[in-house]
Specification:
The longest helix is centred in the middle third of the chain and has 24 residues. The chain folds into two domains: 263 residues, Rossmann fold, CATH 3.40.50.10540; 75 residues, 2-Layer Sandwich (formyl-coa transferase, domain 3), CATH 3.30.1540. The model has no long low-confidence stretch (mean pLDDT 97). 40% of the residues lie in helices and 15% in strands. α1 packs across α7. It contains 18 helices and 13 strands. With 398 residues, it is α/β, with parallel strands linked by helices.
Length: 398
């Protein structure tokens, strides 16, 4: 068992659902001890979201709460707040994704926690961030995708905007950038000795992914519109239907790649007709129709083999079923099997990114029972006796 990069780091996960919890999951995969704080009784709502592994426990929870230790604490109670402050005094990172002002009402805001632990890094993820006129509004991933401008450009011009991919992509991106922010803040702390607050909204990571849209609009006034699966600034760059019903993604981003595609298609005449990107964009529909005609005459595997031989970027449009059979996914251990605490085997997404010297690893699936680690954390870390813990339980604090 190799040493992991974040061994010795203590993280308090006070969050719910996906965004900030995913930030903590990433840190936990690389060695941090993540203490998941849940409400007494039912625990985190993610336990019941998605496909149930059993009543009240979802596969989503088992995967995204992996490597975490679960404690219960009533954050609305002064006694519960006092426990969190004591845990925060020993922690390196604390993550939350409540609506702005909630933690302050619970006496667990940045000022209070910073006073308790000057070295603490506090990651705050909310729908619209800690500042601005929308800060108090609630929101989930779908709202963030809409707000960011991504939903507006997703879909076909004659149909309503769609949420790209799953509605949780903004949550995952926010969690990933929250983890980046935490690591940057920890690096700063190493030099200064001081922690800081990391403020991420759900919509901002999506907005950050808009390639040239912001500067292009500012300079030219151009508003990008929906064009289906095509790409506005390069052609051919689309999905094409093969004879066997499979879809093939092809991406030609410059003249050299287009020349190789013409070679794969055995149609050298298209080089003269569509020799520049400007011309290819102008005659988008015509060129896409030519590529579709070529793809549609062969099976998916044949098209992919011809693209590969010509060194044209291409790939199958995989369903989740296809992912389990994909040799690249298997070789990279992108899907791993892990003992299911309910019995049998649990398949889940593997560790990303891959580090050569200090790789991450999965040690446990998400805790089956809320508060499964109450004694280990409260008695071990805070020095409470079992009698103290029992009294807190009787009062509904844990």
């Amino acid at each position: 068992m190799t040493t992991r990069a974040l061994d010795g780091l203590a993280v308090l996960d006070l969050a719910t659902f996906v965004a900030a919890p995913f930030c903590c999951t990433l840190l936990g995969e690389f060695g941090a001890e993540v203490i998941k704080v849940e409400q007494p009784g039912g625990g985190d709502d993610l336990r019941r979201l998605g496909t149930p592994a059993r009543e009240g426990l979802s596969y989503w929870w088992l995967m995204e709460s992996r490597n975490k230790k679960s404690i219960t604490c009533n954050l609305r109670s002064p006694d519960g707040q006092a426990l969190i402050q004591r845990l925060a005094a020993q922690a390196d990172v604390l993550a939350e994704n409540f609506r702005p002002g909630t933690m302050e009402r619970w006496h667990l805001g940045w000022e209070e926690l910073h006073a308790v632990n000057r070295r603490l890094v506090m990651v705050r993820i909310s729908a619209f961030g800690q500042t601005g006129p929308y800060r108090d509004q609630p929101g989930f991933g779908r709202i963030a995708a809409a707000m960011s401008g991504v939903s507006y450009i997703s879909g076909y011009p004659d149909r309503p905007p769609v949420t790209p991919g799953t509605p949780t992509i903004p949550d995952y991106l926010a969690g990933a950038l929250g983890a980046v922010g935490a690591l940057v803040a920890l690096q700063h702390r190493q030099r200064s000795g001081e922690g800081q607050m990391v403020d991420v909204s759900l919509y901002e990571p999506m907005l950050r992914m808009l390639d040239e849209m912001i500067p292009a609009y500012a300079a030219t006034g151009h508003v990008r519109e929906r064009i289906g699966s095509a790409t506005e600034y390069v052609v051919p760059h689309n999905h094409y239907l093969a004879r066997d019903g499979g879809w093939v993604a092809i991406a030609c981003t410059n003249d050299r790649m287009f020349e190789r595609l013409a070679q794969a298609m055995e149609q050298p005449q298209i080089l003269a007709e569509f020799g520049t990107m400007r011309e290819r964009i102008r005659r988008r529909a015509e060129l896409d129709a030519l590529v579709q005609d070529w793809v549609g005459k062969a099976e998916t595997r044949q098209v992919l083999a011809r693209l590969d031989a010509a060194e044209v970027p291409g790939g199958a449009v995989n369903s989740v079923k296809d992912l389990f059979a994909d040799p690249q996914v298997r070789a990279r251990e992108n899907i791993v099997e892990f003992p299911n605490p309910l019995g049998g085997i649990l398949a889940m997404v593997g560790i990303v990114p891959k580090l050569s010297a200090t790789p991450g690893r999965i040690e446990t699936a998400g805790p089956v029972t809320p508060g499964a680690h109450n004694e280990e954390i409260y008695c071990g870390r805070l020095g409470l006796s079992r009698e103290d813990l029992a009294a807190l339980g009787a009062k509904g604090i844990v």
